[in-house]
Amino acid sequence: MIKRNLLVMGLAVLLSACGFQLRGTGSNEIAIKELDLSARNAYGETVSQLRRVLEGGGVKVYTGAPYKLILTDEQESQRTASYSGSARSAEYSLTTVLNYEIHGEKDRLLTSGKVQTDKTYVHDGNNLVGSDQEAAQIRLEMRNEQVQKMVAALSRLSPARLDELQQKADAVAKAEADALEAAQKVRDETPQQSPVEIPSR
User: Fold this and answer.
1) % of the chain at pLDDT higher than 70
2) Is residue 125 a part of any domain in this protein?
3) Is the pTM for the entire model greater than 0.85?
4) Containing domain of residue 147, as a range?
5) Is residue 197, in this structure, part of any structural domain at all?
6) Environment class of residue 194 by beta-carbon count within 10 Å: exposed (0-12), middle (13-18) or buried (19+)?
7) How many other CB atoms are there within 10 angstroms of residue 114's CB atom?
8) Is residue 80 part of a domain?
9) What is the distance between the alpha carbons of residues 99 and 108, in angstroms, rounded to a whole number?
10) Domains of the chain: total
């Protein structure tokens, strides 16, 4: 058994040295090299783990970076998927949804989206401790998956795409500012009517 394990490990090292990667183990290359990261739950596990993963991937995370990733909301829902015959055990379906926004220059919204993870586990009424431990492990796995999905979403944003989104946001902001200015000009040029004086008797 030990020889077999050593053989597998040696083969994996040899393949990796040749540039081979097992499917699903490749890293997501992020074009954004500077990022401001914040979240509604600023000290939550998700934002803390995401920060570690980004920094480990060569992204400089600091306040005031050109682009800002905001984790606006994180929700978890649970529903019963099925029951056993004795009704002592039940299969639960867990869903976590992470909503996010990416802001650019002048804090203008460039894009927004969400990542979702779904898992199912069995709750055994005869083994509450074991079931609770399994649920905690499932939630940990889901958080890891959420972070990886968030990194994958960031890796799809190229500098050219971010520039395009920034130009669109700037154009929208300019159009809104021009509309407000035009409306104010109309108000300024419209004569103000004097209050009607009612003659005293």
Assistant:
1) 74
2) yes
3) no
4) 27-174
5) no
6) exposed
7) 15
8) yes
9) 17
10) 1
Extract the tokens encoding 96.
């976590």
Exposed e or buried b for every residue in 120-158, given b needs 16+ CB within 10 A?
Answer: ebebeeeeeeebeeebeeebeebbebbbbbbbebbeebe
Residue 26 binned pLDDT confidence (cut-offs 50, 70, 90) = very low
Q: Indicate whether 165 belongs to any domain.
A: yes
Over residues 52-93, the pLDDT tens digits come to 999 999 999 999 999 999 999 999 998 877 766 555 667 888
Tell me the per-residue pLDDT of 136-177, one tens digit each, with 9 for 90 and over.
899 999 999 999 999 999 999 988 999 999 999 999 999 998
Distance CA 117, CA 94 (A): 8
Tokens, residue 167: 């130009």
Q: What is the pLDDT of residues 121-137, one digit of tens each?
A: 876 666 666 667 888 89
Instruction: Choose among 63, 50, 59: nearest CA to 29.
Output: 59
Identify the pLDDT of residue 23: 35
CA 81 to CA 93: how far, in whole Å?
Answer: 6
